[in-house]
Amino acid sequence: MNEHPDLDTSELSVRPSRGPVDFAPLVAIWRSAVDATHEFLADADRDEIESRLESDYFPAVSLTVAELNGRPVGFAGVLDGNLEMLFIDAKHRGTGIGTRLLRHAINNHGVRYVDVNEQNRQAVEFYTCRGFQVVRRSATDDAGRPYPLLHLQLT
Question: What is the pLDDT of residues 105-126, one digit of tens each?
Answer without folding.
Answer: 999 999 999 999 999 999 999 9
